[in-house]
Write a structure and sequence with these properties.
The structure is a homodimer. The longest helix of chain A has 15 residues. In chain A, strand 4, helix 3 and strand 5 form a beta-alpha-beta unit. In chain A, the strands form 4 sheets. Chain A has a 6-stranded parallel beta sheet, with helices on both faces. In chain A, strands 3-2-4-5-6 form a 5-stranded parallel beta sheet, sandwiched between helices. The first copy, chain A, has a two-stranded antiparallel ribbon with strand order 1-9. The first copy, chain A, is globular. The first copy, chain A, is built from 11 helices and 15 strands. The model of chain A has no long low-confidence stretch (mean pLDDT 95). By secondary structure, the first copy, chain A, is α/β, with parallel strands linked by helices. Chain A folds into 2 domains: 121 residues, Rossmann fold, CATH 3.40.50.720; 193 residues, Rossmann fold. In chain A, helix 3 packs parallel to helix 4. At the A-B interface, helix 7, helix 8, strand 13 and helix 9 of A face helix 7, helix 8, strand 13 and helix 9 of B.
Chain lengths: 337, 337
């Protein structure tokens, strides 16, 4: 059994994408894993520039690149016909091709043929690996931290990556563990947990953070919310399989309702803590909340300071904005133990 | 969007199966839906006899049968080579073929070819229908009752079917709604909820019990347990999508641990009630527990009486053994409202 895996170093493919919004995956890779990103491949001079060296596929391969990573996502998630020639060329030059868009690489005949001829791999990071077992619930060695949320899309991946970086800076033995497509590209491995068949969600989560040294931390990218009317099965299965020792609640200041589910109020941070503890204790009695991570981009600087101080006082925990201020106080809290 | 559906009446296929244990699906159909079972097809005289008229496929089709249902499951879940000729013949005679074994009918070339030639359907009840949406959480009209459990395999399907039958007898407008393969065969429709991709589990549950008349009850077959170390994602997603107004907790007297997970104690009935209420209130504030259904087959008659009386006193709810004594007291409780 293995999780999805990408081989580094990467050549980041940006196509002709002019909008940095749609080049988020490539930008995330360059930001969080600069050491793995050898260069970029742009099909137009006005395409997004990540400040990396420009390569064509042949030169990149000759210089040691292993995987061309499609780092843009257009609406609808298709793979542009204009890209296919370049991707075929990349495979023949000796690169794997990885993508997280909706269209599967393996559904495009020319790519399958080129991969077969060149002996290279097509890596669809939205497709779970085969043979995922049912979760065992058996306690694994090593420490685990899970980011959980009041909702989707409010910084669980960012918070986990920021915690990994800050903990590494303090000398922790630590790895970010990915459960979503962009996270998998950044980590180089992982399982897209929301695409796993329901019976195997906890088992997939167990594979994502395998047994490790007793003092090693896995910082696991959370998904959804245990209170989400659409996605709670994913969040609960991930929580049960992760067996976290610690968790951080992620939220967004000013968000009042579940995004896209306007009849559902955002659950309170206290309710998320309580429910996460209740479920988490089933597999790890030692679980505890160690902090709150809030996206405060809608607030002024003064409002942010007051908001975070209030959260910290209300819950007796460090409260941070990981983008504006970093996650230092949470690592302090963990470090003081 | 549609759930899986089987067309009645059925010809129950028993092959050469001599063990009634492995003919459970056929026996369940004959027990719960005698009006849909036109006859049986046995390939050997010593095969299990359900007391139905024996037919060959041609005579059955000529007499109005619509679907040949494979009602046996051998270990490993394969479809025996010895059956293929008969199944091909059934398709050419004008019958659909339905199965819930592990091997997909659609993976067997000769069956696919015969179905295509005859214009009949292969129905794999373990395969969820395509295009299941994400759950909306929007409240649907009609009433819903979900059977939940302290564990797997302790009577959630049986209890739901017994409740449907008893409620029908009292004049309720009521339908059993299936979420597992055997249940789907019995109901004639449904979705195998544990085979749905995690993101869509609640959405699938919403499809299983669609909006209905205000006084209509759906009695929904539960799955797993919200405390299960392997399957809680399934149970939580089903609970959230079902929006039950009422639930019955199913358990087994004498079971001390989660079956197959020996390091996990069986959760208490009280804990299951509390957690089910907490999660269920997210989508239906009116949710309540209306009874306990216990498999007491390990107890003597005296022990059973005492055990059920104690449960009833402890929780202030009717407590029944659906097989030994029926579910009458739970329907009384519901009826008194």
């Amino acid at each position: 059994m293995a999780t999805i895996a990408l081989e580094a170093p990467y050549l980041l493919f940006l196509g002709s994408e002019k909008s940095s919004t749609y080049a988020k995956t490539a930008a995330g890779l360059a930001h969080w894993r600069p050491e793995l990103c050898m260069g970029q491949l742009r099909l137009a001079t006005e395409a997004v520039d990540l400040g990396l060296p420009d390569y064509d596929v042949v030169t990149a391969a000759a210089n040691g690149a292993k995987t061309l990573v499609i780092g843009t996502a257009v609406i609808g998630g298709a793979i542009s016909d204009a890209w296919i020639d370049v991707l075929v060329e990349a495979l023949h030059a000796g690169l794997d091709v990885a993508a997280g868009v909706h269209t599967r690489l393996s559904s495009i005949d020319r790519l399958v043929e080129a991969a077969s001829q060149s002996g290279r791999k097509l890596v669809d990071v939205r497709v779970p690996p085969p043979h995922i077992p049912v979760g065992t619930g058996v306690k694994r060695s090593g420490k685990r931290l899970l980011t959980v949320g009041t909702d989707c899309a409010l910084g669980k991946k960012y918070t986990a990556l920021a915690l990994e970086r800050a903990m590494k800076g303090r000398g922790f033995s630590v790895d970010f563990r990915a459960t979503g497509q962009t996270g998998i590209m950044i980590a180089g491995s992982g399982i897209p947990i929301d695409a796993v068949v329901a019976d195997f969600v906890s088992g997939a989560a167990e594979m994502v953070s395998p047994a490790n040294d007793e003092d090693h931390w896995d910082v696991i990218e959370g998904q959804g919310s245990v209170f989400h009317p659409g996605y709670s099965a994913v969040s609960v299965g991930l929580l049960v399989g992760s067996q976290p020792d610690a968790f951080v609640v992620c939220t967004e200041a000013g968000r009042t309702h579940i995004e896209g589910w306007p009849s559902f109020e955002l659950p309170s941070i206290g309710a998320v803590i309580e429910r996460t503890l209740a479920i988490g204790r089933q597999v790890n009695p030692a679980i505890r909340c160690i902090g709150i991570s809030a996206n405060t981009s809608r607030l002024s600087e003064l409002e942010r300071t007051e908001y975070l101080a209030q959260l910290s006082a209300d819950y007796g925990l460090p409260a941070v904005d990981p983008i504006a201020l970093g996650v230092g106080p949470i690592v302090d809290f963990l470090d003081e133990d």
